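Work through this protein:
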Amino acid sequence: MKLAVATAIAALLNAAAAKDERTFAVLRFNNKQLTKGRMDPLRNPGETGLHVHNILGGSGFSTSSKGGDLQKSRCTTAKVKGDNSNYWFPSLYFKDPKTAKFEHVDVFYANAYYFFDATNDDIKAFPLGLGIFSGDSDTRSPPPAAGAATNLDPSKGPVNPVKWTCPRDGNRYDPPSWPADSDGKLAGIGDAVNKGEGVGFPDVNCDGFASPLRADIHFPSCYNPNGYIHVPHLFLEVYWNTPAFKDRWESGKASQPFVLSNGDSTGFSLHADFMSGWDEKVLQHIIDTCNAGTAGMDKCPNLPLGLTDDECTIESMIHEKVDGVLESLPGSNPLTGWAYGGANSSSPSPSREAPSTPSTSRPEASSQPTDEEDYPVKRVQDKPVRLDTGSSTRTAKHGATAVPKEEAPLPSAPAEEPSYPTAGTASQSSGPAASPDCAHAVTATDPAAPTVQLDCRGVRPAAASPRRAARLRRWLRRVVSRLVSSEKCVSHCKAGGFALAGTEYGGQCYCGNELVGSQRLDEGRCETPCEGDASQFCGGGWALSVYSKDGQAVLKGARSRRHFHNHMRRHRGRHS
């Protein structure tokens, strides 16, 4: 039996920003961290920091780094060349209920959303050296009035820029992720509207497929040198590999074993820092021309400096053990909050006292525009290029190293997109770009598997806004399988009586009976290897590989192209 596969991808990558529309692009990173340690050049410049941070970005980072140091970085973890900024946040630890010892929790992956909000003024690139702190590292108490709702507008009450997201298996929230009717004094507080979000740690295992516990941090989008300057609205999401500990604690008992590196057992003190090391020409180009959305900032057209594809790491300046099994938290930070006691800091937090004016370091002189000619983003090839990780392409000074990175499957899209206030925002609306048609045949690796006929189709994604995308996704159910492959997805959908099967992000499976708003595109855009069979491709970021029984698909495109993913329903099944 022949199957047909069609590639679907978001083509809305180069729509210019309009003042009445909000656009955005997600910056992704090549590796999980640049370094890790008690370093914080904003809060403790030139000194050993109070607690451990995970640091992303440029290799110029140090305990006393400034914008000029970042500008001289020899490598960066950011995929977009020209971003030598640093992003850092407190590390997460697991406190073993039996031994009372601490174990570090790995970062699963992190993304930085750059939102370019609807506005009547101009959004300017971050000036070199601008530092921003968001959150309150001292508090052990919930927000004073806003509860678990996200609020970034100080005119509407206390600002709440940080939350936790707990994706659940199949988007099922019974029992709830946070104790019902919690007031924050003994446990975290769940969001009454979005049951996957809350303030403070949840007390259940966050078992969403490829979407474990997530830290969400919004940064302010203006600062006040001489008159307020409108800069991009930065949102940082950090996924932690908490499922690695799921069998070592009892879920749903109004207590949980994870603590932040500052000793906070509540999660209320979640915070993050940012120091800009952007080439301002590159970032301004992205602000003015790119609306890549979740496809990724690395898909923005005509990036002035192109992309990076290397891992970048440096040694920590603080020589102490911060990973593995520990008797105490680095810095000997005591546990505080909830069962451990410890009052909230009496000093007001920067985010609450002056939410519209972030804690900042003074920006340095603007970076000089690059003299290099613009050139387009690397073309995606028919097959991903795999590099030998044993060789080195270059060595950065001051201990920074850059090694080629083996192309790995992209993580699955989160069950919920970041919360974003609805007031004052505008949705995006632009048509998809044209792409060439193509068609050829490939043969499955398994000799017993059917021949797969390949063509290419693209659709506009359901991504006018993160909140809208979340609404469109919330009834979709994901295939539960550690090793998703095209054949498994096809078999699962066929067993359910569906005419179409689709794979995306290397590990998601959709079932449905029709395509909505599909357009044929280059099949190379489905470049993500399947988690269950690396010789097969399972879509990509907003790129859906679609299979049908007879090589035909019911195609509807008249009224609602953005609802494509709504018509490709994810189904749950156990298959090995």
Notes: The chain has a mean pLDDT of 73. The two ends are 22 Å apart (CA to CA). The first strand starts at residue 3 and ends at 9.
